[in-house]
Amino acid sequence: MKFINDKQRYEGLFETKDKSGKFVLFYLSKGKGETFDISGREAAKVRKRFAFGGYTVNNAGCFINDSCTGCSDCEEICPFDCIYKEEAYVINSRYCVECGLCYKVCTQNAIELPKKM
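^ that's the sequence the OP posted. Answer follows.
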């Protein structure tokens, strides 16, 4: 089949038009997702979750709860250096890839695994 232009090429696949009758290749009305910056501009992968159209997302990364005794085992095992001590230990969710190593090493059950997006 020969196409005259790109509009004609895609119109057979995506026969979607907006309210004004204009051709729309695709339309996203609601959803959620996650982006990773692996460009190398920062020392580690950077993650960001997003939602639109009324959806919400859970925070990314593992979480340290109040059961933490400050033993530092989680900080030592983290391959992404995203666990650090402030007043208590904290996990920077922008860099946590949810590998679960901190969860496995914690004897106090102070690490909570992330909830699904």
